Amino acid sequence: MTAQPRKLVVSFLTTVDGAHHNPMSFAGPYFDDAAAARSLADLEACDAMLMGRNTYEYFAHGWSNATDPYSQRINDIAKYVFSSTLTAAAWNNTKVLAGDVATTVAELKQQGGGDLMIYGNGRLSRTLLDHGLVDELKIAVFPVVAGAETPLPRPGRTAPLRLASTRTWTNGTVQLTYVPESFPEGGVPG
Fold first, then answer.
1. What CATH number does residue 90 fall under?
2. Which of 12-26, 79-93, 171-185 has the weakest average pLDDT?
3. pLDDT in tens, 57-114
4. C-alpha pair distances (Å), 89 with each of 81, 132, 161
5. Fewer CB within 10 A of the terminal residue: the chain, N end or C end?
6. Where in the sequence is the domain holding 71, given as residue range(s)?
7. What's the rounded Cα separation, in Å, for the pair 125 and 153?
8. Is the residue at 143 inside a domain?
């Protein structure tokens, strides 16, 4: 019997005007106990996190010594870092991978097990979306205006999505979960 493929989930935080870099600058006041519990539940459904070098460096610095349950899960989970410049990682349970990202992630998805998680919508997320490897986008929209930044997908590209679910929390944050779709011949998704 063949293992069921893993789902690749891209989860990121943004403001209503699209700012997403340095999310704790706008999400911090909203990251209460309930938000930590939701994030922990998402991570517990995962076997591994995928990240690029910049995200790895940001997370390793901020999370590697934290001990709360959410931070402990991030520390314990397998982490795959895709980088052409980083050769070794000091953070526990971290493996640096070089080579073709799309091929490697397709292989990871076929191994079966829990979901694969990417935090953020940087170059790695955009590349995997371009290659049709993203199964779900979880976007938490915070009720803050901060200035728009780098868009997902790449400028000039279109990524049609189907809304799978919405959740609104009492603090005004909205999570939108989308599933990527393909454009049908000569039209837009129905």
1. 3.40.430.10
2. 171-185
3. 988 988 888 888 888 899 999 999 999 999 899 999 999 998 899 999 999 999 978 9
4. 8, 28, 35
5. N
6. 8-180
7. 9
8. yes
Contacts of 149 (CB under 8 A, 6+ apart): 18, 19, 20, 21
Query: The tokens of 152 are what?
Result: 């997902």
* Bridge partner residues of 179 (DSSP): 162
In-domain check, residue 32 = yes
Q: Which string of DSSP letters, residue by residue, matches 126-149? A: HHHHHTT---EEEEEEES------
Q: Does the residue 190 lie in any domain?
A: no
What is the largest distance, in Å, between two alpha-carbon atoms of the chain? 52
- What distance in Å separates the CA atoms of residue 64 and residue 94, rounded to the nearest whole number? 11
**Angle of helix 123-130 relative to helix 101-110, nearest 10 degrees?**
70
CA 149 from centre of chain: 17
Rounded distance between C-alpha atoms, residue 178 and residue 166, angstroms: 9
Which tokens is 161 given? Answer: 């999505």
pTM confidence score = 0.79
Q: Are 102 and 133 contacting, i.e. CB atoms less than 8 angstroms apart?
A: yes
Alpha-carbon distance of 144 to 167, in angstroms, equals: 17
Question: Residue 188: inside a domain, yes or no?
Answer: no
Gap between the terminal Cα atoms of the chain: 35
